[in-house]
Amino acid sequence: MRLDRFICKSTELSRAQAAVIIHAGRVAVNGEPLCDERAQVHESNRITLDDQVLQPRPFRYIMLHKPAGMICSNVDEYYASVFRLLSVEHPDELHIVGRLDVDTTGLVLLTDDGRWSFAITNPKSDCSKVYRVTLRDPISTASQTEVLQQRLIQGIKLQGEALPTRPALLTVLSEYQVLLTLSEGKFHQVKRMVAALGNRVRQLHRVQIGRLKLDIAEGEWRHLSEEEALRSADTNRIEAVRTL
Fold first, then answer.
1. How far is CA 9 from CA 30, 69, 192, in A?
2. Cα 163–167–169 angle (5° rounding)?
3. Range of the domain at 139
C-alpha cells in the first residue's frame, strides 16, 4: 500500500498529517528515510516513525445487507450512504467491494484490504455473484428457459460494449423469479442483460458472492471471519448456483 496510507493505518494521523511527517524525513523504511508519501510499501517492510516500529491495524472484512433507497458510497449524496448503517472505528479507511444500485438490495462487502477487494472484483478472478431477479414477464415454458440459458452461456452483446458478456448461469425459481450468476460487474449489467432478453427487472437482490451467502437481516452488518473472507473470493461459479 502507499506509505501515507500505511502511516494512517498504523496511527491516528490523517492523510494530510502523514504527508507532513513523511516530508519531514521522520519515516524510514528498512532503515532508510523515505520522503515520498506515494511510495509503495509492503507489510514485510520495517517501517518506523521517529525510530518507533509501526504496526498496522488488522484488515477488516464486513458483510452488510443493503436496503433499497441507500447508495454504495462513502458519503451521503441525494440518497443516504450505507456507511450510516455502520458503527466502526476509522470508517474512512473502508471501501465498498462491488457496488449495488440505489434500488438494488442484498449483500455488500466492505474492507480496508485492497488486494482482497481486487480479487473479488477483477473479472479475471472469475468470482461469482448471484442475484435473485424478479421479472416483469413470466418464464412459462421449459423451452423458453432453455433458450434463455443458452443465450446467457454464450454471452450477450450489450449496447455500447465491444465484447459480449462473460458466460452467465440461469436458475429458474418460479415464473417470475430467477437466480442469475455473473462473474463480472458491468454498469447496470443484470438489468441490461434482462432487457436484451426482452424482459424487465422488477426487483434485484444480491444473495451471494463466491461461496459467501447473505445471512443477516436487512439493514444489519457484521464482521467476517478470516475463513469467510477467503470463501467470498472463491471462484467456483457452478457450485455457487448449485449450493443455494
1. 18, 31, 39
2. 145
3. 61-242
Q: How far apart are CA 129 and CA 180, in angstroms?
A: 8
Distances (CA, A) of 210 to 24, 82, 136, 184, 194: 44, 22, 27, 12, 22
Cα dihedral 214, 215, 219, 223 sign:
negative
Cβ 129 vs Cβ 183: under 8 Å: yes
| Interval 64-99: pLDDT, tens | 999 999 999 988 899 999 999 999 988 988 999 989
CATH label of the domain that carries residue 19: 3.10.290.10
The verdict on 115 and 68 lying in the same domain is yes
In angstroms, the CA 91 to CA 110 distance is: 10
Digit-coded pLDDT (tens) for 91-142: 988 999 989 999 999 999 999 998 899 888 887 788 899 999 999 999 988 8
What pTM was computed for the model?
0.84
CB-neighbour burial class of residue 243 (10 A; exposed 0-12, middle 13-18, buried 19+): exposed
Would you please indicate which residues are annotated as catalytic (active-site) residues? 101
Decide if pLDDT at 239 tops 70: no
* Measured torsion, CA atoms of residues 175, 209, 101, 15, in degrees rounded to the nearest 10: 180
Q: Are 82 and 181 in a shared domain?
A: yes
